[in-house]
Amino acid sequence: MVPVPAKGRRVQRMRRQPDKRRIVPKPRRPTAGANLPARHPLRHAEFLITAADWPQLPAGGAPEVAFAGRSNAGKSSAINALTQRTRLAFVSKTPGRTQHINFFRLPSGALLADLPGYGYAEVPAAMRRHWQRFIARYLAERAPLIGLVLIMDARHPLTELDSQMLDWFLPSGRPVHILLAKCDKLATGEQRRVLDAVYEALTESYGGRTAQIAVQLFSATRRLGVAEAERAVESWLAPLGT
Ligand code: GDP
After folding, report:
1. For the domain with range 12-18+41-240, which CATH number is right: 3.90.550.10, 1.10.3720.10, 3.40.50.300, 3.30.70.330?
2. In this structure, are residues 42 and 227 in contact, taking their beta carbons and an 8 Å threshold?
3. How far is the CA of 75 from the centre of ligand 1 (A)?
4. Residue 72 CA, closest ligand 1 atom number
5. Residue of 25 and 192 predicted with greater confidence
6. Which residue's alpha carbon is nearest to atom 22 within ligand 1?
7. Which residue from 57, 72, 99, 194 lies 20 to 30 Å from 33 (Cα-Cα)?
């Protein structure tokens, strides 16, 4: 269980080893009108809409969980692992959609918002400025946004732009769950060292806001830490009945 941190507690560090289960039950296929299993609220997500600017964001107020990360950090793979869809998040990589927020709807009605990957050197300056304004406003002001999953490559965590995302989002007071992705590329001892280093850096930078932040190791390809990440998102959605 990865609870939303209790007030006053420090950054939550997932000290135990990532979930090592390799065999994951196949998701049950939904049938029209059938009640979906409440235990797997992230499964069966479907692409909903793509938004390039504020007026295009979905109306209706359904709770949203956003996923953000530097391009190539492993965000699409993480979304696919959590939703158990093999190609879902790659929608966001299709030409014309890489600078948009792509929304997926869960059977409960809650939305997953896949934010554009950042850090592409070749993005034109004007587009980068538009992206920055849009994402900064989205993270700071979007009312239905209930939590942010921030994906970082475990080998290069807490880049300048990762910190920028935290600076935009944390004043909202909502929780952020950091996945140190591709941790399978690090030896076990190194994984622990990186987790400690990220934990310490976050505590140093965001001392007053660390109760909002949790961090864990994650590997989509080895399915390490998937259950913990899933439980974190579930803990944000469940109190809302989603
Ligand atoms: P995105 O650009 O952040 O959406 O990143 P992707 O999910 O597309 O992943 C970028 C690259 O990293 C791809 O070649 C993936 O196969 C690889 N990758 C993603 N997750 C993992 C992981 O957990 N372990 C390893 N070894 N490679 C990964």
Report:
1. 3.40.50.300
2. no
3. 7
4. 2
5. 192
6. 182
7. 57
